[in-house]
Amino acid sequence: xxxxxxxxxxxxxxxxxxxxxxxxxxxxxxxxxxxxxxxxxxxxxxxxxxxxxxxxxxxxxxxxxxxxxxxxxxxxxxxxxxxxxxxxxxxxxxxxxxxxxxxxxxxxxxxxxxxxxxxxxxxxxxxxxxxxxxxxxxxxxxxxxxxxxxxxxxxxxxxxxxxxxxxxxxxxxxxxxxxxxxxxxxxxxxxxx
Length: 193
Prior knowledge:
By secondary structure, the chain is an alpha+beta fold. The chain has helices spanning 6-17, 36-48, 55-66, 72-81, 95-98, 100-118, 182-192; strands at 85-89, 124-134, 139-143, 153-166, 171-177.
C-alpha cells in the first residue's frame, strides 16, 4: 500500500472537479528542488516569452522538459528572491501608441475637441473595429521597474462593429457578421444623418 500526502489528495480532488484526470504516475513523489539546468530554463523561457506566463505554465514546461516535479511555490519564491520579480497586473499597449508623434497628435486632437465643444458644436466620433478576443491572463511576473510586455491578440474575424458617440450623449452602433466594407460604412452614415 502506498502512502499519499494530503496536498496530493487536494490537488487530485480539484482536478476531478474540473473533469481532469489526476496524474497517477506522480502519486506520492516528493517535490524536487531546482538545479542549474532548471533555473537556466526558467530564465530562458521568461526572457523569450511574448505572452504572459504563469507559474503553472512553467511547472508543466519543466515537467515536460526534465521530468522533474517542482511546486508553484518553489518557482514563485525563486522568481521573487533570485530574479527580483513581482506578480503585476498587465495593460495592453503597442509601440505605435507610445511614439512621440502619436502622443502629440492626441494632445492636438483633444485641444481641438474641447475648443469645438465650447462653441456648442455637435461632435460625433465614429469608429469601426473587429471584436477581438485577447489573452485572458491579466497578470505576469515582472522585474522591478520593468516595462510591461507586449501581448498578441487573437481576433474573431467574423464580427465587426461600427459605433458613433455624439457630444450630446447619444450612442449609435451597428454590428454585422462578416467584414465591414465601404457600403456598410456609408449605410451607417446615412442612417446616422
